[in-house]
Amino acid sequence: MFFVNRSTNFNIVTNPQPGTALTPGASGAWGSWTTLIAGASNTRGGEWHRTHVVANYAASTDRRLFIDLGYRVAGSSGSEITAVPRLVGSKAPNNQVYNSIGLEYEGPIYVPAGYDLVARGMSNQASPTTCYIVSTLYADALYEYPQASMCEAIGFNDTTVQGVDVACFNNAFHVTAGYGSTWTSLGTISRESKWLDASLVKYGTNDGTAYHAMQIAYGDATNKVIVMGDAVWGYAVGEAFQKRKFERYIDRIPAGSTLYARVVSQTDGNVAVIAYNYF
């Protein structure tokens, strides 16, 4: 169910750049915080974010990117609070940074009125290039959901700047064959989940057109409850993944639960997965 959105605060997208330019930190270090929405424009505060990340890397190279989304007292460097950590950036095919390819995220957060919405980046590259962030801050909820204020990332690895490696169950006609029986643990949530999102990226060189479908569950080694089913990602070349269909989970998952993922694909190989637990 959608609520009537009475007021929307958003950062202006200046063409031809697909969002606000941000330079990530090099070699696994965080870069500086960059303002996406100035506090003067954030007159009502925010209860929901929708964020689009484009890494701006050539598809044939193995480059990785994390983005932290946060807020701070307007203009006050050093007061930043991370609200949504380690969003994964996706590449545009053949470095076409002006199209809509990238990974999009959304979920319930709380940003006080008058505060800046900010972001910072981390890259695995020694000399990272500029990436682009489009983030819309909604003063009213977009969905009927249990209210949440922050998020934790489950399954990230700062050393390699990526998520957990999940081996794909390979089948060109995966709808018939299903997912296989192997689940990979992403990690444990520390707080009761009220909204769940995820990212999936295949790193490496180009290997043609393919699609990946993913399920996420919680439970233990024997028993699992699938809470996100048949999320589909597709790409044209290389790592240019984009969510085609995604079933975010809007319900409560108990604190201390372990999250698992499994992926089926037209191609062999591993993908990197991170789950985002809003609480």
Give a written overview of the molecule.
With 279 residues, this protein is mainly beta. The protein has 2 domains: 8-138, Jelly Rolls (Sandwich); 151-278, Jelly Rolls (Sandwich). It has 1 helix and 18 strands. The protein has one helix at 174-177, and strands at 8-10, 20-22, 34-37, 46-54, 65-73, 81-88, 103-111, 115-123, 131-138, 151-154, 164-170, 184-188, 195-201, 210-219, 224-235, 242-245, 258-265, 270-278. The longest helix is centred in the middle third of the chain and has 4 residues, at 174-177. It starts with 7 loop residues before the first strand and ends with a strand.
Short descriptors:
2 domains, Jelly Rolls, mainly beta, 46% strand, 1 helix, five-stranded antiparallel β-sheet, 18 strands, 279 residues, disordered N terminus, nine-stranded mixed β-sheet, 1% helix
Short description:
Helices cover 1% and strands 46% of the residues.
**What number is the mean pLDDT?**
78
Summed up, the helix count is: 1
In which range does the helix fraction lie? under 10%
Q: Major sheet: size, sense and barrel closure?
A: 9 strands, mixed
Number of strands: 18
Q: List the secondary-structure elements in sequence, H or E.
A: EEEEEEEEEEEHEEEEEEE
Any chance you could write out the topology, listing elements then pairs?
Blueprint: E1 8-10, E2 20-22, E3 34-37, E4 46-54, E5 65-73, E6 81-88, E7 103-111, E8 115-123, E9 131-138, E10 151-154, E11 164-170, H1 174-177, E12 184-188, E13 195-201, E14 210-219, E15 224-235, E16 242-245, E17 258-265, E18 270-278
Parallel strand pairs: 11-17
Antiparallel strand pairs: 1-9, 2-9, 3-8, 4-7, 4-9, 5-6, 5-8, 10-18, 11-18, 12-17, 13-18, 14-15, 14-17, 15-16
